[in-house]
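REQUEST FORM: STRUCTURE PREDICTION
Request ID: SP-0412
Submitted by: Lab K.M.
Chain count: 1
Length (residues): 367
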Amino acid sequence: MPTPKTVLQIVPYLPGTLDGVGDYALNLAKALAADHGLTTLFAVARGASINNKDGFSVISSLDECSIEALAEKCEHVILHYANYGYQSRGIPFHLRSFARQLRGQLRGRWLTTFHELYASGPPWKSAFWLHPLQVKIARDLIDLSTSCFVSNSAIEKAIHVCDPRKPVHLAPVMSNFGEPNGVDDVSPKRWAICGGTALIARSLALFEQRHRSIPDHFSPDHLDVIGGRDENSTRVVLERLSRNTPGLSCHYHPEVSAELASGLLRKSSFGWIDYFGTGKMWPGMILKSGAFAAYCAHGVVPVLSHREEAIAIEGDALPGPYFITGDAVDFPSPDRLRETRQKIHAWYQAHAASRQIARIYAEALTK
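STATUS: Completed
RESULT:
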């Protein structure tokens, strides 16, 4: 008989290896264990060189020969789906086959967290030609799921196009860089840019162009760039930014631990993010950003490169969203900065903190 308190979490990469999806799964596992007595066994599709991560057992690869043993060991499954994480062209046929076989032997519930659903692109991109296959695989995984988890309403709507009756839980992405209990008093001129390698590069390049539009009261005198791989191109931009901006001190913290990242973010008032780059802006999609979550978790005011409609969960709106675009700027008033930061932190604690998200997962698994 499977152990009711054991959940198999399927991830593309080993948690704790600078992969947002894996880190999300690891933080979820910790909260499920601490608050709900649910133990996670990780199955890492891309393989792993270790068999234990932070006290959780790890198995390497999705071996169809192990399906019967997994079904005996685990009652429930949480699949973390990001199609390109499982296959380089976004068509993970092996994952679908593995999921179908395991689902057929599973006694409990199957939750699929759609970090991504499928891609699209112009005719000269492979995503254009592979889009129908990506959609078919996603629909098959929706079909076999007891319920689905998404971080934003755009993916929720897409799932309901496939199956209007499928239960879908809206759960914003949680911070992978810690969740402090409060907000520190810090200088209004301390800024941060955090995230993965590509997001940092994109955000820093645009920050270099637009930082002079920041109101004088918040004009940065300190910038921390936190996360991603150590890239010489990023160092070049930071050196140029320091050289061309008198009074601005720039600091680079690549491949940083969550503890150090959290300490740096606690000292920041504002966080800059160019989430969409030159791509299409999808309303509410910012809630799938780990960088955005990290800012909110620390009471750092996110400043976006695009205009965003009000962001609300269950009618509770996040302050702002604030932005610097090519032709407009919106910031909180200087005398309400601390209050704004506290409201952002409180909003995160109520709707996106790991304990809140784990509660929703636990209810979906056990009720």
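NOTES: The chain has two domains: 3-171+354-366, 190-351.
Reviewed by: T.R.
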